[in-house]
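Following up on my earlier thread - several people asked me to post the actual chain instead of describing it. Fair enough. Here it is, all 524 residues.
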Amino acid sequence: MARPMRRQLGRWLVAAGTATATATPAIGHAHTTESQVASPTPSLPPVGPLLPAFFAGVPPLRYDAADAVEAAWVRLKHVADPVEQARLLAVSGLRRTACVDLVDFRALPAVRDAAFGWRDNFRGRTWIRPALASVLVQALDRLRAERPDIVLTVGDVAQPGCGQVAHGALIRMVEDATPDVPGSASQVLASVRPLLGRPVRVVLARGADFPSERDRFPRGDENVRVEQEVLGRDTTADGRAVVRVLERRFIDAPLPARKGLARRQLRRGLELATRTWQHGTTLERGFVPHDDAAPPTAVTAPVASAHAQPAGPAALVHVEHRVDVRRGRQVVVVSLQPVAGKLDPARVLEVRTAKWHPRKPGSFAGETRWRPDPLAAWGWRRTAMLSEAGHLTHLAGRDADLSFFTMGNADHLKKKVRSIDAAATWRWFELLDATARAAGTPIERILIARRVRSWIARKVPREARKSDLWRHVVMVSPGHDAHHHVRLAPVPGSADTVALGWLQTPRPDATALAGGNAHVSRQP
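Reply from S.P.:
Thanks for posting it. Predicted structure:
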């Protein structure tokens, strides 16, 4: 390590906890956010007495066709200059844009009786183009006619409203059932506060409040900070609030008890932040309102019904976001005054580091937050973002992650290649291809890992390996050893219309439907 950086890191290590919020910063140039550069808000109901005035700056939701939304994100991903990419993301309105032609796969009458399992009940990435939904249901019906014991587990399809899926983020479309229902849109809006200039609802919970994710919270008493950023707002025809929310979750990541190991981890983290800062290009900077006062105790009720942190007076803090393109890293520094030249621990309120990917605009993969805290061990408090998939595809409901068929329907969505029923999986690929072609919406590709392809190749006839399906559709892609990825070719609108009519009609052999039509994303 160079001597100047070693001296600077030494100051970081000994000056922990000295940053305070006593100074009053001078107002510099504005921190550019999508809310500030978006098109003027159309006529929406006035902000009610329970909603903070800050909410008035939340832009209206936008709606567009899934293909147009996907095309816009793809164009943005291919902008080479990160500064220009950040600017275009801010002015595009894409984060508050929802698709109008997706349906909730789980809610379709034709799906409720099919042999689909579901990875979880929490993430909500089950929105889909009707054409792909119809192909999956019909192909599985045909396979079950041959193998009645077969079950298929659905992982990720598209997020509610479609569009970009950022690392660590879950997208929610939250609507009021009644305005006083806990966790409803009105309650979200009533408790938003400015966090680094964005409208965010903060809820403090425990790991036990997420019973469907016991594998991620084995103790149950883990502190979980849930941040729900409100991206856009709207109202239903009968006047109920609707919000599009980007949700991220953070857990405590305390430094180890062993002094030597703790100092090494702290030094590495601060060194990474410093290098990214020194070599990075500034994407955005300026003073923003920020209210992150913590309540005396954490809330230990389920997130859906927990009380958010009470909003207090917002202070102005300076935020600077830099990206080191060569190393693929990014850092966000929160301070009382602009940091000139080098990071000064006495003036820094928080440092956030994450990976940076040019094809993932607005995404913070593996984000870690460092905050000086004299009450924490070693003088710094560290929190880490919970990982969630950050897909490069899955933008418009034409992509689906599905389990392989396995022996005894065990080990779905697990990396156990020898558990895969190669014959059933290959037959599924054949039926998918035939069903999609018959519907006029062919399968564009099926992605599997190399070792999965080798396993299937050992078990299927030689004629299968000579087919166009095997040679041109079933393709190798890293990261697909626990599931396969199906992508439908571009879908004509007429195909979606026909498919939706079929999907909304209960099948003659249906025995116990929950009733109601599919939840189609709201029309503009």
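The first helix runs from residue 3 to 14. That should answer part of your original question.
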